[in-house]
Amino acid sequence: MFPKKMFASEIRGRLNFAYSYLSADLTREEFIGHVITGNTYTNGISKHIVESAISMVMIEPQFIIYPTDEYPLSTFTGLQFGIPVSMNYLQEERLISPDFGTYENGQTTRGHSDGDIPLPSSLYFALSLGARYELYKFGNFSILPELRFNLGLTNLTEHFNWKASSLSIGAVLQYNPAITKQKPPTIPPQPVLPKPPVSSAPELAIKVFNDGYELKNGDTLKVKVIDSVFIKKYFVSPLIFFHDNVTEIRDFGKIPDTQEEAQKLSLIAVKNYLENNPDAGVTIISSSIEDDDNDVITKINENVVEQLNIDEKRVKQKSIIKKNKYKYPELENENRYIKFEFGNNKQELIVHGDTIVKSSFDNIVLEIVPKIKSEGEYDFKGQIKSSAGNKIELNEAEKNYKLNEILSADELKKGIKLSVIANVKDKSSQEAKAELEFILKPEAVEKVVIENSVNKDGANFTEYILGFCEFGKADFYSVNQHALEFTKNAIKDGKTIEILPLTDSLGTTDYNKNLANKRAEAALKILSINKNNSNVIIPDKYFFSNSTPEGRLLNRSVLVRIH
Q1: Does some domain include residue 195?
Q2: Measured between alpha carbons, how far is 279 from 314 in angstroms, rounded to an integer?
Q3: First-to-last C-alpha distance (Å) of the chain
Q4: Minimal CA–CA distance to 440: which of 468, 413, 406, 415?
Q5: Distance between CA 41 and CA 427 in Å, rounded?
Q6: Are residues 145 and 220 located together in one domain of the fold?
Q7: Are the beta carbons of 266 and 233 closer than 8 angstroms?
Q8: pLDDT tens-digit series, residues 121-147
Q9: Mean pLDDT score of the chain
Q10: Would residue 416 count as lying in a domain?
Q11: Co-location of 218 and 268 in the same domain
Q12: Other Cβ atoms closer than 10 A to 232
């Protein structure tokens, strides 16, 4: 009764009423002496016997556990509460050897006593453990072999420490009364409800606006596209350095990545200048050290003239031989050079670097207004899709959509088909669709040329070399006329100008700082900028290498930045 589940096992409670007969015999043999018969003797042995007969009425509350559903096995544990009905005993001594002997009373027993056990306990209490297995079942009856152990916990009498425990093996005939399960009440069938009337299908229309103008299906929307052409122009000094025993100075035709690479290719700038100015002549000055081989210098000059590929009448040549005594050893290699003079220092000797084109377009914002008519709740879905495969999901609560997220300028240049698709579905799966298509085309592409753009530390500016100075001098021997005019126009437009005079690492710190200030003054002078209104920055580090002649030459220049 009262079945419960615990740890996947079924547990039940049971209360038994039983009549128990607890009997126990105590025997002990004792040697009592020799019995002499003629010339022989026999051991005299007696047996002491104590027999008890105890009957009780029992009440047994138990818990029954069914550990598995696969087998009809159950275990139980519980308590026994017993009330004695009768408690008797028998006590005597019996002669068991020799079998022909008797005691002094002429009998084979002596010390006989029997009767009720004195001072019995009024309550018997024991712990009961056991197991049953349902072996056979017929009708409402079951036969269950049972193994049980009862551990006595209380004494049977008040005078002795005498507890009764028992181990029993037997079989139980169990009656299982049929339990009639009450049938649940019959649920009456649901009444047939009339079908609800079918609602009308939803209706959907969409309107698309751009800058307040409504677009119709098939319209063409023109977009302004700007090509930003980023040009790198390296202004170089009209000077080429060579090394001992090098007879050729070659134009490698490569595109430089740095100012120092461009300076090594300055012969390209000289050649381009002479091609663009066919009336201009050039004086080629070769400088060497007094220990250099004259034949090598001659071959170098011939190689340079050959690469310039101009009429010899336009070319004059001079040679300078310098002594190999210098305050700084680095200056020795700097005095092996070919220098080009054109009669003034206003030539723009430019070596071109990479040209990068970045296309952009104005923001394109579409306002999409869906017009929905539905008798009930509905789901709205939609998207803006380009012919390139990119898309934006529509939301009924949002109206404005920025198309720059799904378009590129290169795609716009070719023309793009744009589709606006929307769908409405009500709870009865009736739906409506709407779709509009447009063509996006660029207006005339506008080109913007941006020279020498630099992005550094979050600031954008244009940077030029304004001019070159000789070692230890402040005046310019070569001026970047393009940078000069660009900077003057920027000053007129109110833009911020920064002057950065550079020095090499030769000389003391104080000397170079003083030299940098003088070079800044020379720059302010040609830019016609008042010194008090100037923004001169003397760098705290070298912009170019001091380990090569080209790097040191560049460190003797003045930079200008236009913000």
Answers
A1: no
A2: 8
A3: 96
A4: 415
A5: 117
A6: no
A7: no
A8: 888 888 999 888 888 888 788 888 988
A9: 86
A10: yes
A11: no
A12: 18
Domain encompassing residue 510:
452-562
Distance between CA atoms of residues 161 and 151, nearest Å: 14
Residues 154 and 70 placed together within one structural domain of the fold? yes
CATH of the domain at 433: 2.60.40
3-class state of residue 378 by DSSP: strand
* CATH classification at residue 463: 3.30.1330.60
Torsion from C-alpha of 62, 64, 65, 69, nearest 10 degrees: 180
The overall pTM is greater than 0.85 = no
Tokens at 23, concatenated: 């009997």
Segment holding 333, helix H or strand E = helix 330-334
Q: Are 464 and 552 part of one and the same domain?
A: yes
Say what the alpha-carbon torsion angle 168, 170, 171, 177 is, to the nearest 10 degrees.
Answer: -20
Task: List Cβ neighbours of 429 (8 Å cut-off, separation of 6 or more).
Answer: none
Tokens for 139, please give them.
């009708």
The residue among 2 and 539 whose pLDDT is bigger is: 539
Amino acid at 234: Y
The Cα–Cα gap between 283 and 300 comes to 15
Binning pLDDT at 50, 70 and 90, where does residue 409 land? confident
- Band of residue 362 on the pLDDT scale cut at 50, 70, 90: confident
**Number of domains comprising the chain:** 4
The band of 248, judged by pLDDT with boundaries at 50, 70 and 90, is low
The residue written with tokens 């024991």 in the block is 126
Cα(227)–Cα(48) distance, integer angstroms: 127
Average pLDDT over residues 195-200: 76
How far apart are the C-alpha atoms of 374 and 376, rounded to whole Å?
Answer: 6
Q: What is the pLDDT of residues 41-80, one digit of tens each?
A: 888 889 888 888 888 888 989 888 888 878 888 888 989 8
511 Cβ partners below 8 Å, 6+ apart? Answer: none
Residue 483, domain member (yes or no): yes
Say how far apart CA 461 and CA 451 lie, in whole Å: 10
How far is residue 247's CA from residue 244's CA, in Å, rounded to a whole number? 9
**Amino acid in the structure at residue 552:** R
- Boundary-marking domain end, from 408, 424, 446: 446
Residues 386 and 530 in one domain: no
Rounded distance between C-alpha atoms, residue 407 and residue 395, angstroms: 20
Contact yes or no for 266/239 (Cβ under 8 A): yes
Of the residues 446, 472, 492, the one at which a domain ends? 446
Instruction: Look up tokens 């959509």; give the residue.
Output: 401
Q: Are 336 and 289 in contact (CB under 8 A)?
A: yes
Q: Kindly give the residue spans of alpha helices, DSSP state H, lying in 362-417.
A: 409-414
Spatial CA neighbour of 72 closest among 167, 159, 176, 153:
176
For residue 233, being part of any structural domain is answered with no
Say yes or no: 274 and 327 in one domain.
yes
- Let me know whether 155 and 82 are in one domain: yes
Residues 459 and 426 in one domain: no
